[in-house]
Design goal:
- This protein is mainly beta.
- The protein folds into 2 domains: 9-236, Jelly Rolls; 256-343, Sandwich (Immunoglobulin-like).
- Helix content is 3%, strand content 48%.
- It contains 1 helix and 25 strands.
- Strands 1, 2, 3, 4, 7, 8, 10, 11, 12, 13 and 17 form an 11-stranded mixed β-sheet that branches.
- The radius of gyration is 21 Å and the shape is globular.
């Protein structure tokens, strides 16, 4: 069953630009996001709240979105990037029972410029409490044959990862159990994968912004209030800049540094960081490796010393740290590189 989720989207498109001047802005996953407010307007239509009881960041840097009632009115939540996005992979790390939400609740992970310039990953029962295919990949318009893939998404735990890789000639979708910044350990982790190469792929010159919303179909009140909150642990997207905006990444090997992704990632107590140096004139360089939290605060000086050209690895233990997103910065002389890691207890 294909359901239109934006019957009032054109109205919302106008509201978007007239409300930016006074919209609340949050900084999450390295970029600024507007918080939608007001209504009723689409999708739904619904009322939307930018109140900190509806949308907030916790101490681990995770984003919380809620559907809540106040004075008899149900308020939904949506955030969307201040900057436009472009070709590349958009990856969302989610925590929540997205397969068990009320029949009227919808979680959307998408990029949007208009009703026909949009790429979606959505979770909803669309009013049917017995619906099994609660998840969908869509390149709008959904009503065109071959533009939507429906699939089941039965969870045994709350962490899930969902992505689409938007390219000029295709869109590759994926949805999996667990939190992963790359491929999971095996194909069995995937709920579904889908490759779209039809005629409705948006082009990069369209003003698409990344959106995350949690809303009610047709504005209908929820019947089951067991789940009223979804947590977004992290988002990776092409125009992302890290919380360490003041640090540069200016060189590649040869004559510079190469910083690899830590492994494993995510991890629960220890991980290994790999890096390689190619020192100018093969002279030793002063080297430091520093760990920062998602707010850019120094958490730990992992390494300080002098190193010659070569490949190195460092074991990092994080038992004393709270779960969350961290950045590690490698500095070697004039060269700097940063990477992101996810610690889950």
């Amino acid at each position: 069953m294909k359901v239109s989720r934006k019957p009032f989207a054109c109205f919302w498109f106008l509201i978007l630009f007239t409300s930016m001047v006074w919209a609340r802005i949050i900084h999450f996953a390295g970029v600024d996001w507007y918080v939608k407010n007001g209504g009723p307007y689409g999708p739904g239509p619904n009322y939307w709240s930018d109140n900190e009881q509806s949308v907030w960041l916790d101490e681990q840097g995770r984003l919380h979105l809620t559907i809540r009632q106040e004075n008899g009115i149900w308020y939904c939540s949506e955030v969307y990037t201040v900057k436009e996005t472009t070709y590349g992979q958009h990856r969302f790390l989610i925590e929540g029972w997205i397969d068990r939400m009320d029949r009227n609740m919808v979680l959307g992970l998408f990029v949007y410029a208009s009703d026909t310039s949009e790429i979606d990953i959505e979770f909803s029962k669309w009013g049917d409490p017995l619906r099994e295919q609660v998840a969908s990949f869509t390149v709008q318009p959904y009503w065109e044959q071959g533009n939507q893939q429906l699939f089941e998404c039965q969870l045994d735990s709350t962490p899930t990862t969902h992505f689409f890789d938007w390219q000029p000639g295709f869109v590759h979708f994926g949805s999996m159990r667990g939190h992963y910044y790359a491929a999971p350990p095996s194909e069995s982790y995937y709920f579904s994968r889908w490759l779209y190469n039809g005629d409705d792929i948006p082009t990069s010159d369209m003003p698409l912004h990344t959106h995350i919303n949690f809303w009610l179909m047709n504005g209908n009140a929820p019947q089951d209030l067991t789940i009223k909150e979804i947590i977004i642990t992290d988002v990776e997207q092409p125009l992302q800049t890290s919380a360490l905006d003041n640090f540069s990444s200016v060189s590649t090997v040869p004559e510079g540094i190469e910083l690899e992704q830590n492994f494993p990632n995510p991890f629960n107590d220890r991980t290994v960081i790999f890096y390689r140096l190619q020192c100018p004139n093969n002279k030793p360089l002063p080297v430091s490796l520093t760990l920062f939290d998602c707010q850019g605060r120094v958490i730990k000086h992992i390494l300080e010393g002098s190193k010659v050209s070569g490949k190195y690895s460092i074991n990092l233990q994080t038992k004393e740290f709270p779960s969350g997103i961290y950045f590690y910065l490698l500095t070697a002389g004039p060269f700097q590189k940063t990477k992101k890691m996810l610690f889950v207890k």
